[in-house]
Prior knowledge:
Elements lengths: L24 E14 L2 E14 L3 E5 L6 H9 L7 E10 L2 E2 L5 H7 L4 E4 L3 H4 L6 H13 L3 H14 L5 H4 L9 H13 L5 E5 L7 H18 L2 E6 L2 H7 L2 E6 L2 E7 H6 L4 H8 L39 H5 L5 E2 L6 E2 L9 H16 L8
Parallel strand pairs: 3-8, 3-9, 6-7, 7-8
Antiparallel strand pairs: 1-2, 1-4, 4-5, 9-10, 10-12, 11-12
Helix pairs in contact: 4-5, 5-7, 7-8, 11-13
Amino acid sequence: MKQKADLAVYQEETPRVGPPTDPDVLLDVRNLQTHFHVMDGTVKAVDGVDFSLKRGETLGIVGESGCGKSVTALTIMQLLDMPPGEIVGGEIWFEGRDLLTLAPEQIRKIRGADMAMIFQEPMTSLNPVFTIGDQISEAIILHQHVGKKEAMTRAIASLRAVGINAPERRVKQYPHEMSGGIRQRVMIAMALSCNPQLIIADEPTTALDVTIQAQILELIKKIQADSGAALLLITHDLAVVAETVQNVAVMYAGRVVEAGPVEDVLLRPQHPYTLGLLNSIPALHKRGRKLDVIKGVVPNPFRMPPGCKFEPRCPYAWEVCRRSEPDMMDTPGRKSRSRCFLHAAEGAARRYEFEKAAVATVTAGLPEAQA
C-alpha cells in the first residue's frame, strides 16, 4: 500500500488494465473524466468516476443537482456535445470493449440496441412532429433489420408491455396528445424495444406526480427483473434508491464519495455528505422542527477547494482535509467504500463522533425496541 506524507490512505498500487476479469461484469467505468471548456474556464463535470455493474444487477447514482450524475450517463452513451464537452480520460468497458476506443459508427450500432437510455423529460426527448409508432419503429428497423410492418407490430407490443391501453391507437398519436405518465411509458417502451442488456434511467420520474412516480418505478423494476437487463438508475431521491436498487454510488462535485450495497450506504453511512443527505429528509418525528440542511453550497466549479471538495461544508473536517484530497478507502467491517479521511488512522477520534451522529440519524423516529 502507498502512503501519503501527511496521512495513511489506501489506494490501488497499479491502475486496472484491459477488460474486466469477471465475465459477469457488464459495465466497468474506470477513472472517467469529462470536462466542459467554456468562456470562463474548464468545468470538471466528471472527475475520476469509478463503478461497475454486473449483468442483471441494479445500481443507483445519487447526489445533488450539478454533481455529475447525468453527465456520467451521457458520457457512457456518447451523447455529449463535443465541443464544449471533452472526454479527457478513463475507460468505459461494456461487453468486453472499451467504448472510448470505438468509432462513432460502432457506437451507433451499440446505442439503442445493447444499451438504451430513459431520459428525464419525455416531452423534450420525443419528437413532436412524428407519431409515437414512427419513433419507436425507427430504432427497431435500424437495429433489428426488419421491415416497416414488422417494426410497427413490435412497437405495438412494446407499448402493450409497459401497460399502455389500446396500443394500436396510441402508435398513431403524437406526443402532445398524451399525458406525462403515458409519455414516460412510451420512453420506456422505446428503450426496451430492442431488448438492451443495459438500461440507463436518468431521473425517470422527475416531472411526474407522486402517484405516477410510484407506477413508473414499479414498471421499471418489473421490466428489469423480467428482461434480466442491468439497470443504472440516476436520481436525487434516496427513497427511490432504497426501494429500487441493490448497490448505490453517492456523487459530489464530479466524484463518487461513497459506494456499496444500498443497505450499508443508507443504514450505515460512512461519508459526511451521505449523512447530510439522510439528515435532510423530512420525517414525522421532525414535525414542528426546522428541517436539517447541509450548510453552505456546492463549490464553484471554476474554484474548487484544493483538498477534499466537501471540506467547506463538512462539520468533521480538519487541517488535512484542506490540504489533501482523500482516495476511496475501505470501511472496516463493511462492504462499502468512502472517500473520507475519517477512515484513515489519524481520523479515529473524529470517526467516533461521526459514527454516533450516523447512528442517531438512522435510528431517529424508530420505537425504542427497534432503535
